[in-house]
Amino acid sequence: MKKVFVSILALSLGVLTVFGTGCTKKQTELIMATNAEFPPYEYYDGDKIVGIDAEIAQAIADEMGATLVIEDMQFDSILASVQTGKADMGVAGMTITEDRLQNVDFSIPYATAMQVIIVPEDSDITTPDDLAGKTIGVQLGTTGDIYADDIEDATIERYNKGFEAVSALTQGKVDAVIIDNEPAKVFVSQNEGLKVVSEEFTIEEYAIAIKKGNTDLLNQVNDAISKLQESGKLQEIVDKYIKAE
Ligand code: GLN
Hints:
Elements: H1 2-28, E1 29-34, E2 37-38, E3 42-45, E4 48-50, H2 52-64, E5 67-72, H3 78-83, E6 89-90, H4 98-103, E7 104-106, E8 111-113, E9 115-120, E10 135-139, H5 143-149, E11 155-159, H6 162-170, E12 176-180, H7 181-190, E13 194-196, E14 204-206, E15 209-211, H8 215-231, H9 233-241
Parallel strand pairs: 1-5, 1-6, 10-11, 10-12
Antiparallel strand pairs: 2-3, 3-4, 6-15, 7-15, 8-14, 9-12, 9-13
Bound molecules: glutamine (GLN).
Glutamine binds next to loops.
């Protein structure tokens, strides 16, 4: 009898500890999974990860009274990290897609973006249709990768980092790179002899990925984004990193 009581007590304590830490962790730390190779949204400035997403995440954490912890990983590991609960949220210039919605929930969108094509200045590629039959560089697992997959007779070279695809372009290993518009501008400004094709071919929305069913966090993140939008702070962050042309 006594033994049974002790085990029940131990079990309850165990359960309490598990749930107890779960709650505490949620309140004190907000872990963001990202791929810090995506300027101006997330990139390294020295050994610090900065950018629009880093600042939005910091503002959300402040709103929640939590400490932001940023974990840098490959882009195609971010969703798994959110799904398994290793990270609380994926903030990575991540586009809402039907496929991703099968695996995670998304916050309300906080930015609009497009896929664009980067080519050498003297390229004969001037519209998305010209990509048929070409060799195209993309970042693995991105919407650029998904889009390139549909292009007729194209050969796709997948890289872990966007700038690796752009380096391949400068070395003539690929004919074009499909990537998000803002990083495209940054990469073109950092590399001689490249340009962005003026015709865009998708409109996408960036949002924050959260583990399916974690409505508590989803609501808190959505509330924080709404507040940042209403107060003008979100625009302030964007203006700091994207200069008007
Ligand atoms: N917006 C693109 C996507 O969601 C690329 C994001 C990224 O490379 N960080 O796939």
